[in-house]
Amino acid sequence: MEALFFISIGFVAYTYAVYPVVLVFWGTFFPRRFNRRYQHLPVSVVIAARNEEDRIGERIDNILGQDYPSELIEVIVVSDGSTDRTVAVARERGETVRVLDCPATGKAGALNTGVAHATHDIVVFADARQRFDTGVVADLVSVFFDDRVGAVSGELVIDSSGDGDFGESVGLYWAYEKLIRRMESRADSVVGATGSIYAIRRSLYVPLEERALLDDFLVPMRIVLQGYRVVFNRAAQAHDTASSTASQEFDRKVRTLAGNFQALAMEPRLLDPWRNRIFFQLISHKLCRLAVPYFCVLALVASALVSDTLYRVAFFAQLVFYLLGGLSRTPLRSGPIGRLVRLSSTFVVLNAAAVAGLWVWATGRANAAWKKG
């Protein structure tokens, strides 16, 4: 039990603390830099949307309002079985926007359609919800000056000033996540991209399975398998708001983590260290996090079964930390221990979502249906 306790605690510590430290050391002292040059290349921007009549018009205006020659930006809106005025509103933007009114197949199928109709070598993926800074297209395109780069992810800036303290914790977690992505990019490649703001070389796109949940993981990782880099450019920024409640974040993470299991099943080459040169990053960043909740349970059980003061203290410390998460809806969330309460709540929600995500995938309940954010 003692060995099991230390192995379990060590695993959790490696996942959330040691791996980031290794990355910081790696990226700082052994960086693999990429070349950038601002250049005006023609770009196809693909927006897959379903029932986004309230957002699609402003989103198109946001893309066409980039600090980039408008004649070089091809906007392709793929309506995936929309039943509202999404198509009509998009077409009101004029002939500069290509609107494809397609039957519902899911986001993956819509992206396949959009890329198939793209006429330019660089394809930028955008969602209807977020907003780009005016320099995003220029910043994304600049990275493709380096022939070794096959895809580039921008930075999603989470506005945690919205409703609820939980949003603040999600924002802090996202800042931690972006640090890891920056360091992975310096070392070689990020493990996946930010779905609302990334670009690829069209020639490297591998059509997605229609039931695929995570295009922003499968598309860039398949580009890595082709020998190219996937880098992170924090200069290119999109903006969004954080989930305001634990239930919203839980639902979103269940879908995402179920998608991780699904993607690994769809692309088993990722688990082959001889084919996937960023196998170490994949294991440490993705797979270890999926396993953390089980090691947390093992650590709790092991410490409860050892009759020693140290382990009893460890047991109660773990128990108190997890129980603090249940106080996130009480006045204590804003009291002296408020930050610890919110941290516990976020940790519990994310790890519970990992367990639920496995269940959703294993039982065949994962689907590519749209989830409105």
Features:
single chain; 373 residues; alpha/beta; Spore Coat Polysaccharide Biosynthesis Protein SpsA, Chain A; 11 helices; globular
What's the gist of this structure?
The chain has helices at residues 2-29, 56-64, 86-91, 107-117, 136-143, 165-187, 215-225, 246-266, 279-305, 309-324, 338-362, and strands at residues 43-49, 73-80, 97-102, 122-126, 131-132, 149-159, 197-201, 229-241. With 373 residues, it is an alpha/beta fold. The chain has a domain at 42-244: Spore Coat Polysaccharide Biosynthesis Protein SpsA, Chain A (Alpha-Beta Complex).
Could you please say which CATH topology of the domain at 42-244 applies here? Answer: Spore Coat Polysaccharide Biosynthesis Protein SpsA, Chain A
> Which superfamily, in CATH terms, is the homologous superfamily of the domain at 42-244?
Spore Coat Polysaccharide Biosynthesis Protein SpsA, Chain A
- Number of helical segments with 4 or more residues: 11
Estimate what percentage of residues fall within beta strands. 15-25%
Q: Which overall shape is indicated by the principal axes computed on the Cα atoms?
A: globular
- Gyration radius, rounded: 22 Å
Helix content: 40-55%
CATH architecture of the domain at 42-244: Alpha-Beta Complex
Structural class: alpha/beta
